[in-house]
Structures are given as structure tokens and as C-alpha cells.
Amino acid sequence: QVQLVESGGGSVQTGGSLRLSCAVSGYTYSWRCMGWFRQAPGKEREGVAYIDSDGDTNYADSLKGRFTISQDNAKNTLYLQMNSLNPEDTAMYYCAASRKLACWDGGPMNFAYWGQGTQVTVSS
To answer: Do 37 and 59 meet the contact criterion of CB atoms below 8 Å apart?
Structure first.
């Protein structure tokens, strides 16, 4: 059974940084494409960043340069480094796993496995 467990959320002030982690267990497939999504109250879930087994990454255009996705295969952990945070980044952040190539094409529907989310709140 695949389990994804996020951690690292919290409250920060504008300009601050956070690093989210996602511990992955039970994923036995040789290929995976992982993603971070976020959802603010009253808004649709949106893709933030993605990384595949080859280490190729893809980002939402509006977040390039501030967010960095990475993975530690030895620890089976996915990360999202978030810098220069602002109140518009306030949302629940989710990690997700997909077996699809180029999982960033197609949105949340490409992802079969989801974590429970971790809250990020940025105050002005």
C-alpha cells in the first residue's frame, strides 16, 4: 500500500522560507513521477512542481525561481524548498505520486496516490 506523508508546513512571515518533506512508502514500481500541489480555500488544486525518476523537473511558471523540488532516493523522500514566501502562497500543500510519464501534463488526474496535506500560512 502506497503511503505519502507530508511534513514541514507551518506559519511564516512574508519573505520567509519553508521546506516541505514527503515520506514515501510502499511504492514498488520502478518508475514514478512525483508532484507537489496546493489548494487554497475556495480555489482549485493547482500543480506547483514535479520531478520524475530521471530527475527531470517542471514548475508552475509563476513559481519558478522561488520553489525548488528535489528528492532523496536513498531516504525515499520528496522535498519542496519554498523561498520568498508571500500571503498568496498560503494553502494546503499535498504531495502526490504518478506512474505516468511527464506527469505534469494533465494535472491532478494523472496522480493516483496522495498525501494528507500540510498547511502553509504566510502572514504579511
So the answer is: no
Q: What is the mean pLDDT of residues 2-23?
A: 98
* Residue of 15, 16, 3, 28 lying closest to 95 (CA atoms): 3
Structure confidence at residue 7 (pLDDT): 98
Query: According to the model, what pLDDT value does residue 29 have?
Result: 81
- Residue range 71-103, pLDDT digits in tens: 998 999 999 999 999 999 999 999 999 998 889
Phi-psi region of 15 (alpha: psi -120 to 50; beta: other; left: phi over 0): left
Tell me the CA distances in angstroms from 57 to 10, 88, 89, 94, 108, one per residue in order: 25, 23, 20, 17, 16
| Amino acid code (one letter) for 73 | N
Would you tell me how many other CB atoms lie within 10 Å of the CB of residue 105?
Answer: 10
Instruction: Give the closest residue to 44 by CA, choosing from 100, 76, 91.
Output: 91
Per-residue pLDDT band for 110 (boundaries 50, 70, 90) equals very high
φ, ψ of residue 28 in degrees (nearest 5)? -105, 0
